[in-house]
Amino acid sequence: MISWSASARPSQSGADRPGPASAAAPSGSRIPTSSAFWARARSSMASSYPRIGCAIGRGRTETTRLAAMAGTEDWTVERANEALPRVGAALTRIRELVEQARREREETAGLLEGNGHPATPPSTDELRQAVEALTAEGIVLRDLDAGLVDFPARLADGRQYLLCWVLGEPAVEWWHWPDAGFAGRRPLSDPPA
Asked: Rounded to an integer, what distance in angstroms lies between the CA atom of residue 47 and that of residue 53?
């Protein structure tokens, strides 16, 4: 292992190789060799580069989802109902693309691309774009199989709630608090207060 001394010249001595706790870095070394230092460095890097959740929302916490929606305009029942034909068509297309990607993945299961990974289905890019088009508007895709989406809305006092719609329903007629989920759905006839 090469270490840098105070004179900025590499040293090839065995003293600066990682090893037992008794092995010490040469005096004036600028590159720490202790495992505690590297553990702190890894920890620091992990917090500097947080993991990114999936586009559809799996693996993301409710807080993360709501934070992602913070930059979008709040939805009203009227606005959400006006968007339903477009949102319904997008959900139908996303479902088709998911099924197509599954078929393509099965067809190419034995074929390997670089680094031994299976080839990415061509429909994946279109699928990603379709999902991102919905989420860019602040629409939260909850369950693709059910066609469940939420439209973030806000009360006059600033509290957020979600307008809830399932593909096939004639209109947005349900709402729930962000922490209540689908099980906490209430009809709009019983509005949030």
From this structure: 15
Torsion angle, CA of 85/87/88/94, rounded to 10 degrees? 140
How far does CA 16 lie from the centroid of its chain? 41
What type of residue sits at position 78?
Answer: E
Buried/exposed 91-124: b ≥16 CB within 10 Å, e otherwise: beebbebbebbeebeeeeeeeeeeeeeeeebebe
Tokens (6 digits) for 97: 């693309």
> Given the structure tokens 């774009």, which residue do they identify?
129
Distance CA 71, CA 138 (A): 8
The answer to pTM > 0.70 is no
Q: Give the integer Cα–Cα distance in Å for 14 and 107.
A: 54
Name the H helices within 137-173.
none
Position 14 pLDDT exceeds 90: no
Question: Is the confidence at residue 124, as pLDDT, over 90?
Answer: no
The token duo for 107 is 């067809």
- Under 8 Å CB-to-CB from 76, ≥6 apart: which residues? 153
Q: How far apart are CA 139 and CA 75, in angstroms?
A: 9
Q: Which of 40-44, 51-55, 115-119 has the lowest mean pLDDT?
A: 51-55
Q: Look over the chain and give the mean of its residue pLDDT values, rounded to a whole number.
A: 73
Cα 97 to Cα 94: distance, rounded to the nearest angstrom: 5
